[in-house]
Design brief:
alpha/beta, Rossmann fold, 7-stranded mixed sheet, SAM-dependent_MTases_sf
Length: 361
Amino acid sequence: MLEYSFHAPGAPERELAGTGVKAKGVEHVGLLPTGCTTRCTKINKSMYIRKRETYHLLSVKMATSSSHVENYDASKFWIAPARNFRTSARLHLQHFLFQNTIGYLLEPTIEESLAASSRPLNVADLACGNGIWLTELHSHFAKNNISAQLDGFDINPVNFPDAAYLPDSVSIKQLDILAKPLPADLIGIYDMVHIRAFVSVIPDGDLTPILSVASDLLKPGGFLQWEETRGDKWVVESPSPQVSKLACESIVQVLEGGQKAQGINNEWVDVLDTCLGQFGFQDARLLSQKKRKQDYKGWTEDYLMVWEECAAFFPPKSQASNAPLTREVWTEMFANSVKETEQGVAVHQGKVVTVVGRRPQ
């Protein structure tokens, strides 16, 4: 027997009976006020009950059988064939949202140092997606008469633009940068390595693999610039008390519950400068920028595109009729979240962190 808590912030007392939940072993114990407990068996770590158009999270307090969410593997998710033009469009949006927040392509002290070089530069972008950071950097360098070779690497080429449309100085290649060994011709040749939004590929918080790659790619004295957000922290805001944000909050609770079930914790993002220093990078610094309110709508739409793709984590009702959370339920939850955002509800992650460091000479 497993114990779980019934959460319904602001909701009146409701009966479990009649909610439409199909979970084995539920023992109805009468009215369930907010926060009360009941007992059940064989139920996943998070589930939702729909009652009068309201979703309520059931957070199971004990380990149970795995679900689609708990089996999420970020490294496989991001190379799946389903990553298509919608994902590329989202990456374009995400890029400009990052730029609006931090205000630069290159952290100013890094740019000052690189611009002082009398020789052509080599810059690498890891997990480059569709190469938008590289092509924008090319334009920036061209305006400032800086000569550079800009190389992007990603495990999945599906979002790559055709080489015919790329500037001559930009090269994008398929490469699993975490696979050992790295190509010998890449070792120690880069003046700068750029990383952005890599948090989902580091579920266990072990930064050694990616920092090892960055260090190996850099020349002695080369710079690392890493921009990141906390993937395990969400902020849901309503423009007024009259506008409900319950559906968006419910989706956030499912996602955060799934991450906790897997032991995912992104606290390392807030101390990433310390992590770089411990690894051996010099002059490590952390810069934190709050997201601008005028960009909240853009961030919200960026995350909505991710949430829409998350439907694949949940089994369709036809395959698992007793699943606590089916694909159809998630799809309906998502649709209700979209309606809330159309009324002004915003979803974001608070801030963007930039960390810079330098490989020792």
